[in-house]
Amino acid sequence: MKFRSLYLSAALALFLAGCGAPRITADPITIATPITAKKADLTETQKERWSDLDLLTDTVPGMSVDRAYELLKDRKSNKVVVGIVDSGVDIEHPDLAGRIWTNTKEIAGNGIDDDKNGYIDDVHGWNFLGDIEHENLEFVRIMKKGDDGSEMYKEARAEYEKEYNEMMAEKQKIDFLSNIDKTFQEKLGKTEYTAEDLQKLKVDEADLEGVKQNLIRILSNMSHADFMERIDGAKEHINSTLDYHLNLKFDGREILGDNADDWSTKSYGNNQVWGPEKEGALHGTHVAGIIAQIRGNGIGGDGVASDYAEIMSVRAVPDGDEYDKDVALAIRYAVDNGAKVINGSFGKYYSTHSDWVYDAIKYAAEKDVLIVCAAGNDGMNLNKGGGVVARYPNDTANSDTEISDNFLCIGALTPEYGPDMVARFSNYGKEEVDIFSPGVEIYATTPNDSYRFLQGTSMASPNAAGVAVLIRAFYPKLTASQVKKVIMQSGLPINITVNAGGGEDAIETSFSNLSQTGRIVNAYNAIILADKMSRGKM
Prior knowledge:
This protein has two domains: 22-136 and 258-534, CATH 3.40.50.200; 151-245, no CATH class. It is built from 15 helices and 13 strands. It has helices at 2-19, 44-48, 55-58, 65-71, 138-144, 151-188, 195-200, 206-219, 224-245, 282-292, 324-336, 354-366, 457-474, 480-490, 523-534, and strands spanning 80-86, 125-127, 309-315, 341-344, 370-374, 407-413, 435-438, 442-446, 450-454, 492-493, 497-500, 507-510, 519-520. It has a seven-stranded parallel sheet with strand order 2-3-1-4-5-6-7, with helices on both faces. A two-stranded antiparallel ribbon has the order 8-9.
């Protein structure tokens, strides 16, 4: 009987082993020899999904997502709820169909808080901003409260004066260019003109001749329509900044009826998760698409974790700086309603209630939720002593130690392997930035059934978050801390010299100096490492 029981145990073990997914035996991608940068231009299809490509086979610093899917064939998975804390999401976009989270405890449209969580009819998420679209920057809000003699007020006032003067100078430049364009349109007798048209144009004014030559150089590299599109974009940015972000008389919070300094009130806003107008949800819809837009349907881009993500829209980021209260409550809402990954493509450099956000990050850690956040788009060194006081949110609370192990900070890559692979706008820092992922010219969903190329660390963050979703979908027993470690440790180390930052502050340095890991996110390697970690092999 003893021998029989041993054989029975062995047979049972074999049976149980056969029921589980087989161990992944593939070797991780390594860079054994120097990479030759891709010389040919990307095709249109490659441009729309370059973040899925592979550094070794395509010589593009993508995340090897296509190769990762080869490893995941025929393996069991779970759906992962992803909290998109952002400007709102157009949940009716057809390329997000079937990928929107639904609160099954809530009865849609009955005007009752069925699940008694404080938010009525929160079927697909919550809008903590209500009808707010625009907001001040945080240092402007600090100034508006009056001089309390604090160092923060002094810094805020100095920042306001600097930013206001710079914006007025930019406005003068753009107004000048617009007037010059009108002048040349009148002289040429046409609204659209080329560099060749200007070459043939004779002008009597000496100062106008110099401007003409500058404009010829510009139009030699782009069309007049493209030039004017940039001028119009700059005008829109300047006007928004002056009318709302820096306007001391503007109060966006007034229409919400909530006191942003009072933590006791939490049930405000509404359930219109894209906000008052779908167009205002451009940013959040794009972020959601990077993670969850349908793969392989021939339209739009390909979501990193399309079949495995359920998008929960939590609107807390206006045009302007977000409030700490809204962010803290948004994180808690996502956590309490089942999110296992939260993407935060936002940030600022002043914070009046950072403790509320730190508490929310720690709360997410207690509930095993990973937070992935953008490093910021100011081309700055975030290291202490690097010229920046702090960027919020972060997981260090302005100290040398992390407050939790569930927070990833992501820098942005371009599709060009080599000296220019780090986006000029991307913040960086060996202490504050964890890893880099694709963030330039990313093609994804935008409101009203449309698509656009957008760029920013805002796009790099959901690319990394998408990899986190894949890991949590196939390896649900791994903790948020373990998923963070997998993404950081499995990234491809890049040992080349790159340019970082833009303008006068640009530097030339080893890529390894720009983040804690010196690596770029790699989904293929992440799945291999997650498989090993799930089996206790490391």
